[in-house]
Design a protein that fits this description.
The structure is a single chain. The chain has 363 residues and is mostly helical. The chain has 14 helices and two strands, in the order αααααααβαβαααααα. The chain has helices at residues 3-17, 19-22, 24-49, 52-74, 83-89, 98-113, 119-149, 157-166, 178-181, 188-215, 219-239, 243-282, 297-355, 357-362; strands at 152-154, 175-177. The chain starts with a helix and ends with a helix. 21% of the residues are buried.
Length: 363
């Protein structure tokens, strides 16, 4: 069994725990599902070709990947191989603009042929190819689902002879199980793809786990995160990640980021200083305004004469106002004196009439 597949149970729980922050579990599931579904799709194409060598190679690849998937699922890491998941992996859930895609394909062919005379022909061929590909994938969804659920192959005599001749595999009544066809060497490309995926998800999970471990307070969480740290570290060793080299790369990356940030801060500061200097140049000086007026002597004399005439007119107006106020004041004083005299005369008359009253009463 592949060592990467055997290592998945060490950190699968940690990936599930940190999946919301890192997406590690989802990425690993996508990797495993994608390689298996496309291997099944390739096996169906091999069956349509009828080539015994191609069929034998696809069977060995499919048997090996299927053994991996069964082992992963038995270890508790859930994988979805239902019809909907298979259709989604094949891209049937996406809406593809057939016109735009066919136009792109036809244009590329015209560029390669250095002629645009066959654009319409290339376009029609591309449309037919796209329709045929989508139809085949839709028809193969159920077949791939059944293929992923099984654990063996029923083979034809030609394929059995080819397996016996070139792979030394003896069939049992034209039936071979996955364990009989299993071969890690046949899935080298898929193994490299899986190793790269595991390296990425484990690195992300390790960073998040270290951050949460440094902030953990309760003993239960500390114990849980300690187990996750150990499992992730063992998984990284199994995958072949050099921890010391990874730490050096992280340190160099942090130093580079700090240097770039410092450079950016200096540029921003310099820009702010330049803006402030430019504003100081155009801002008015409120304390000592400097106004320079340049006028001719004739213009100045004219302005002075106009000012003198305005001053004389103002003085004349003020003299008339003062004269009017003096006349009004004189009239007011005369009226007040007349009123006083009349009031005194009235008072004297009243006193005289009162003095005459006793004489009339005696007589």
């Amino acid at each position: 069994m592949n060592k990467h597949i055997n290592a998945i149970p060490l950190f699968s729980t940690a990936l599930e725990y940190f999946d919301r922050k890192t997406g590690g579990a989802w990425r690993l599931r996508s990797c495993l599902t994608s390689m298996t579904v496309w291997a099944g799709n390739g096996h169906l194409y091999a069956l349509q070709s009828g080539d015994p060598d191609r069929i034998a190679k696809s069977m060995i690849t499919m048997a090996t990947l299927r053994t991996w998937m069964h082992e992963v699922r038995n270890d508790g890491f859930a994988l979805d191989f239902t019809s909907s998941a298979v259709a989604k992996t094949l891209g049937l859930d996406k809406h593809v603009d057939a016109h735009a895609e066919a136009s792109r394909i036809a244009r590329d062919k015209c560029i390669r042929s250095r002629s645009a005379t066959k654009f319409v022909l290339y376009y029609k061929e591309a449309m037919q190819q796209l329709d045929e590909t989508r139809r085949r994938r839709e028809e193969s969804v159920e077949q791939i689902t059944e293929l992923l659920a099984s654990s063996g192959f029923e083979i034809t005599p030609d394929v059995a002879d080819h397996l016996l001749t070139f792979y030394a595999i003896i069939d049992n009544d034209l039936y071979l199980s996955d364990s009989e066809l299993y071969d890690d060497a046949a899935v080298e490309r898929q193994a490299d793809q899986l190793a790269e995926c595991l390296a990425n998800v484990l690195t992300s999970a390790s960073e998040v786990c270290e951050a949460e471990y440094s902030g953990a307070i309760t003993e239960a969480k500390i114990a849980k995160l300690t187990g996750f740290r150990n499992g992730i570290r063992m998984g990284m060793e199994q995958v072949g990640i050099n921890l010391s080299q990874l730490a050096k790369r992280k340190q160099a990356l942090d130093a580079l980021i700090d240097a770039q940030a410092a450079t950016l801060d200096a540029e921003v500061k310099t820009l702010d200083e330049q803006i402030a200097a430019a504003q100081a140049q155009v801002a008015p000086d409120a304390a000592s305004p400097k106004v320079t007026t340049v006028k001719g002597a004739a213009h100045l004399a004219k302005e002075q004469a106009l000012l003198d005439a305005q001053n004389a007119a103002e003085q004349a107006r003020l003299a008339k106002v003062a004269e009017f106020e003096a006349a009004e004041d004189k009239k007011r004083k005369a009226a007040m004196a007349k009123a006083n005299r009349e009031r005194k005369a009235q008072a004297a008359a009243s006193v005289k009439s009162f003095d005459a009253l006793p004489t009339l009463m005696v007589s």
